[in-house]
Amino acid sequence: MHSLEEIIERILKHHPQYDRKDILTMIKEKREELGPDVINDEAAAMIVARELGVDLLQDSSRGQFRVEDITEDKRNVALIARVIRLDTMRTFRRRDGSEGRVASLLVGDSTGTIRVVLWDDMTRAISEGHINKGDVVQIRGGYVKKGLRDSLELNIGRMGSIRVLEDYELEEFNTELALPESTKIKDLTEGMYDVTVLAKITRVFNLSTFIRKSDGSEGKVLSVIGADDTGSIRIVFWDDFAEQMRDVQVGEVIRISGAYTRSSRDGAVEVHSGRSAVIERRIEGELESVEISADAGFSESLGLRRIKELTPDMRDVDVEGKVVRMFPAREWKKDEREGKVQNIIVVDEDLQELRVTFWNEAVDKVAELQVGDVIRICHAYTKEREGSIELQAGRRAEIEINPQDSNLMELDVGNLSKQTFMVAKPVEIKEIDEELDGKTVEIRGIIVTMSQTRPIYLACPKCNKKVNEDRGKHFCPTCGEVEQPDYRFAYSIRVDDGSETIMVTLFGNTAERLMSISAREASELIERGKGGEMSPTELLQDRILGKFVLIRGRVSRNRLRNELEVTANYVEFPDIVEESKRVREKLDSMIN
Fold first, then answer.
1. Distances from the Cα of 41 to the Cαs of 1, 32, 46, in angstroms?
2. Which whole number is the average pLDDT over 333-355?
3. For residues 576 and 422, what is the distance between their CA atoms, to the nearest angstrom?
4. For the chain, which domains are there?
5. Distance between CA atoms of 385 and 356, rounded to whole angstroms?
6. Is 0.85 surpassed by the pTM of this model?
7. What would the mean pLDDT of 209-227 be, rounded to a whole number?
8. CA–CA gap between residue 363 and residue 329 (Å, rounded)
9. Minimum mean pLDDT among 16-25, 263-272, 355-364: which range?
10. CA-based nearest residue to 243, from 293, 203, 281, 216
């Protein structure tokens, strides 16, 4: 801010018809007009100068920089910019043993953004709350240094200053403080830094956690597909930014600034939230965006998963296993298409088995594969087939045989290659323990309860995920807008076989088979029963309670209830007479 004497000198320079006494009188009158307790002499002088047509900013010998004008060789930088983000203050120890303090903020004007670093006593501007996000600040005496990834930073030491401008001063400076323009998605290339992207969210993938190999800490990642009128791109959020975006919805418009671009493992350009990123949510106004088809190639990158962690309809997942059985390749033909297919069975460190299916070009990639080899399959997907989960390796699959960094090279699989895989083990419920976690079992018993949650949801017909409704339209978090969602069952029952009880979860066709009614028919039944005394579950549970069932499924631990349960993939209703004979024969064999 200019001093009172500087303002008077500049007014007199442009208006020599006045003398100093005249200017002081004008300033006094302006203070009395606006209220002496409202503004001081300097502020009143700036208003007088403006009314006399004196541009103090342009006339100042110090001048003002724009962000785009700041280069590494600049000294004594003066800048007016808006605060976009504040970082917390931290302390550090200098070489001489003394304690230092440092804090930073991100500021921007219409030409770009830059990180401003405050040292020692200057950090009080942030730690004591004198500067807030959205404030317009004036920086004096800044010096430029290279920071993270060689990006330029503006530093303010004891010879510099930073302060918040008042509204009347903003009018005086007449500075354009709009944020930098967004880069169109079609113009994004690999290796860009400090980019700003405005996009409408068309798909949302689940937040995932992982353990960093570098220090063993937990990380978080969430990605979305964003689009503008020129194209679409994956936007990846890390750690705190992933948490911030956990509730993002399809159709929401966001702006991410201070981001960078990189190539994904399949060569596509992605936008990533770096440490200096700023995310603005729920931006008002419509944004024109291209239509994204469900098969546009975007999928959730899930990384390496253990076999017991696999669920149906996973996309872009990596699996590693030791081969214990191989089946010969065969040719297939359907309509006018033809190709090759081959199956193998692998196990991992948990000795969990998995059938893997290779299609067409992928069959050629495993031509030299043998029992006992370790195989790593990347960019595969899972499907449910005859009640079991299978891994499918198609044209995008990357296959590595006997990778040197695998932990499975020394895995002892014993005689597993001679066994019959994917066969459910008949057990009593009391026998289900941690050793059976991930295994497929067969149980028999009576259905004694049904969960009280809503048993039907609207699902995407392509990936079976639950769709969200927004203004009369349905959106799948993976596939985007869904014109006609399907009805899909998802409910749990408790089965009692006399030795113990266990919760069994059923989905899709398996759930319909048990209920002896389709999910759509069940939804219509519930709709007709609305307003009655019975809940949706009560309307359906009479169809299954007390039934004697045979269930095959996979054992897993329910983290919410902290107990083992079975996810069913096959249901049948044994003949009671035949079942009684089976039980009697079993008892006789135990007695004899």
1. 12, 11, 9
2. 84
3. 27
4. 4-59 (no CATH), 67-173 (2.40.50.140), 185-280 (2.40.50.140), 303-418 (2.40.50.140), 425-584 (2.40.50.140)
5. 11
6. no
7. 79
8. 7
9. 263-272
10. 281
